[in-house]
Amino acid sequence: MQGFDPCQHDSKCLPLTKGYRCECLPGYVGQHCEQDYNDCLENKCQHGAECVDAVNGYTCVCKEGFSGLFCENPPPMILLQTSPCDQSECQNGAQCLVMAGEPVCRCLSGFTGNKCHKIVTVHLLGKDAYLELSSAKIRNSAHISLQVATDKDNGILLYKEDHDPLALELYQGHIRIIYDIANYPLTTVYSVESVNDGLFHTVELLIQNHSLSLVVDKGSPKRLGKLPRQPSVDHSTQLYIGGIPSAVVASGLRSGPDRSPQAFNGCIHNVRINGELQDLWAAPHRVEGILPGCHSCSVCAQGACRQRGETGVSCECPPSRSGSLCDQKTAPSPCQSSRCIHGLCVPKASSYSCQCAEGYTGQYCDRREEPQACRGHQCRHGECRVTGSGEPSCHCQPGYTGLACATDVTCQGEAVRELLKRQQPMNTCTSTSKIHRVECPRACDGGLCCAPSKSRRRKVFFKCTDGSSFSEEIEITLECGCAMCPL
Ligand SMILES: [Ca+2]
């Protein structure tokens, strides 16, 4: 056999009494070690990675985004952050809040309705500005109330068109009613209270039993005595707010000695007819010179005032005040010292509770809620999250990796697959199959050692060069972990 070596791939040719035998280098098999063993037959590649065979080993070619020796690290997750507020239709600068899983619009002052679409406050600026409301709601007895804020002395607040016209006016800083009954002298009543201080004042007009009453700021009523006629309930006529169209002025109320009707300049808020709040922007007719909201900072009874462009001003109340104009006294809110983190504080008697935003739980909404799909999914050093496809997946803390975040990145272990050898005097014994194990060569932070953390005893069969064979139980490392270093 001199000069011819049938053993391939640098294997050693061992002469036997009869013939020879090739002693293969790790990774090769076959009688002449001619075959590169397919190491991918048993591989640990994960997440659909492709296994590429190599000599005595293999490589995992990861799918896009995955990483790690075995492609065990999923891509950094992009959580689909959806909120009920994504679909919210809050209008007029309103903020959307999630309350008990439902979107809730928090309206700026001057707006109301579930979408803050109703405009209940207007700022009249022009000299011909007015709003027109249908007066169909006025019956034999009527209660009309509104709030006004102005620093002007004169202007029309309300005008009821009729053959017996009725006007509610600002006159020299006071409020007055004028009722012009045809063929009778003008009748008038004035409020004691003056209202031209820039703050909101409540003005109420009561029509009842042949009498008209004026109430300002819940004070005592000023009554226009027994009237010759009940004020009209003619449904076809109009109710004007803040001014009167010039054509109506001409045909309307007689001019008294100290009367020249002019438009009201200032803010009008919460016009109610028989208790029903009127949407001032839904009015059938309005002219230029009217802005939604109130744009005068003087309306804030207390606190800071903030201009909000198209939506007017908003009042930021001190802790003791509430309401859109900070004109209501409040008990100190227990939410002032709220510890709610990802949630809303809900006052409860003298205490409060936290109403958690979606995905959070705990007394202070400080813990991420475990999604349903994560039940029973263990993440040793990380947090379970649900991927876009609904699968639970561990999101590891820095320094950890692996499917269950159990592997320290500095101590991942290196996969080895090789034939084991046992050298005996005059005899070499080799395991009959390649043994898959993990080596832990690296170190960990904090003075710890990277050492086998999971192992398994396995029976390995050896075949020796002299033809004999035996088996031996061997401890095989499966995973590495950081541990105290052996002394
Ligand atoms: Ca191979």
TrEMBL record:
Q: Which GO terms describe its cellular component?
A: extracellular region
Q: Which UniProt keywords apply?
A: Disulfide bond, EGF-like domain, Glycoprotein, Repeat, Secreted, Signal
Annotated ranges, domain CTCK: 411-486
| Disulfide bridge partners, by residue number | C24-C33, C62-C71, C107-C116, C267-C294, C335-C345, C356-C365, C374-C384, C396-C405
Keyword Secreted in the entry? The reply is yes
- Check the record and name the Pfam families matching this protein: EGF (PF00008), Laminin_G_2 (PF02210)
One of its GO biological process terms is: axon guidance
CDD domains recorded for this chain? EGF_CA, LamG
Q: Which residue numbers delimit the Laminin G domain? A: 120-294
**SUPFAM superfamilies per the UniProt record, alphabetical:** Concanavalin A-like lectins/glucanases, EGF/Laminin, Growth factor receptor domain
Location in the cell reads:
Secreted
Indicate the segments forming the EGF-like domain, all copies: 1-34, 36-72, 81-117, 331-366, 370-406
User: What Gene Ontology molecular function terms does this protein carry?
Assistant: calcium ion binding; heparin binding; Roundabout binding
Q: What is this protein called?
A: Slit homolog 3 protein-like
Task: Record the organism.
Answer: Salvelinus namaycush (Lake trout)
Q: What phylogenetic lineage does the species belong to?
A: Eukaryota, Metazoa, Chordata, Craniata, Vertebrata
